[in-house]
Amino acid sequence: MISSPCCRIVRSYYLGNSGTFHSRLAALCPSYIKVPNSHARIFVTKLRQTNRPHSSFIIDTKKTTQRVLGSSKVQTDLDDILKDQSASVQLKLVDAYRKGFQSSTEKEKASKKWETLVAYFAKFVVTGVCLYCIFKVSNKMFGGAFPKVLDPSVASFAENADVNFGDVQGCDEVKKELQDIVEFLRNPEKFNHIGAKLPKGVLLVGPPGVGKTLLAKAVSGEAQVPFLYVSGSSFEEVFVGLGASRVRQLFAAAKQNSPCLIFIDEIDSVGRNRTSSPHHPYANQTINQLLAEMDGFQSTEGIIVLGATNQAEDLDKALLRPGRFDVQIFVSPPTYEGRMALLSLYLRKVKTGPNIDIEKLAHGTVGYTGADIQNLVNQAAIAAGLHNDPVVEMHHLWEARDRLIMGPAKRRPMDDQTNRVSAFHEAGHALVALLTPDSTPLHKVCGFIFHLIMTLFLCYSSSCKLSFLCTVRFLRSHN
Predict the structure, then answer these.
(1) In what order do the strands lie in the sheet with 303-309?
(2) pTM assigned to the model
């Protein structure tokens, strides 16, 4: 037996004729009959009113159906509406209930699908508008930084026509080593005829400021080949796979402009030792791609990779093997002769007085790199301008050296007793340096107040060369 309010109406009419109830019910209700919805109930109430034309009581069909929809006594309400109806009317109502409910269900399903499509379309539009606003704001506020993150091209061709080995001073041994690379790039056929292979990579190792970048530019300028420059930090990716994509773009650009020189500055930021941590499974993609590219192109393509770093111990061992970086060159700070050459080079670019003594300056700048000497000359020129002097004098250079070593002097008055005691103390150092055999020659004694608010008297000593061998008497003189 099917339990439904409509079936109960039919059952109440056919209880006296039980033999025909099931067959007639199956003919009238071939599908499962459910509780009618609002549309079906409106149709039923209207039909009831048309069958009772003489009734003075008119039913509010909309209100009645809504009340029935929210009531749990659906059967009682429907029996009340259909009371005193004939059998033919009840059969019509059963058919109307079934057809009305089924048609409204299909409409509800179609409307739900349409509402789902509209909701997804609205989300898509809102997401697109948000991304568009983010790109626009990044272009205005950050100079287009966000779109550049997605840009796989990070390398640029540097200007190198006006840079040669004559512009690089203080590292003659390194220039001699790099001259061989220049010869490879100039005449590759000569070496290929003999059977020699062009080196794939040259690693420049040295402290900051010794001129590794300038040396790489000089190699490209001497060989007259394109110079492709990229910083190692440019390969650091925000999204997975972007760093490896940038490596591929770099070598693709080099192959299109072969013979070419690729210079990767601060290569330790991209070529560090690979990690085996399971928490970062994609951390090695960039260096793996770099290893594959360096060992993937043929040596006859005329592509040489120059790398510069001051932390060679952090590089991956696979990157340093022959076949990738075949040659490693250590670039050390300049010697006494190198410092003289660097001072002459940079002093020619400023107006100097006649009393400039380059030899004394070279004695007083032991351990200085090329960048330090360039900064020294520039600071001296700034000091001359601040004092309204037309040219750079010797005292400007000494003042610049003191400023670079210990910072700017503070013009704060100190009591006479402190100055007197400090002067006696430093004078003792000066006398010991003068009277001790094999001691470093005394150069200068000065006193000033520096940033720790102390009176400092210094004894400057100088040596014409940087030596790694010391005698016992020399060590005792500095005891």
Answers:
(1) 156-157, 227-231, 260-265, 303-309, 201-205, 327-330
(2) 0.60
Task: Give the model's confidence band at 137: pLDDT under 50 very low, under 70 low, under 90 confident, else very high.
Answer: low
The string of pLDDT tens digits covering residues 169-182 is 888 888 888 888 88
Q: Would you state the pLDDT for residue 374?
A: 92
A 10 A CB-CB count for 372 gives 19
How much is the pLDDT for 1? Answer: 42
Give yes or no for residue 376 having a pLDDT over 80.
yes
Please give the single-letter amino acid code of residue 422: S
The mean pLDDT of 293-313, rounded to a whole number, is 77
Q: Give the whole-angstrom CA distance, residue 455 versus residue 31.
A: 106
Class of domain 156-330: alpha beta
To the nearest 10°, report the CA torsion of 260, 163, 211, 353.
180
CATH node for 336-406: 1.10.8.60
Degrees to nearest 5, angle at CA 362 with 360 and 366? 120
Neighbours of 141 (CB within 10 A): 10
* Domain boundaries along the sequence of the chain: 5-110, 156-330, 336-406, 416-477
Residues annotated as catalytic (active site), given as ranges: 426
DSSP code of residue 10? H
Whose CA is closest to 93, among 135, 123, 51, 127?
A: 51
Separation between Cα atoms, residue 356 and residue 391, nearest integer Å: 11
**Dist CA 231 CA 245 (whole Å):** 15
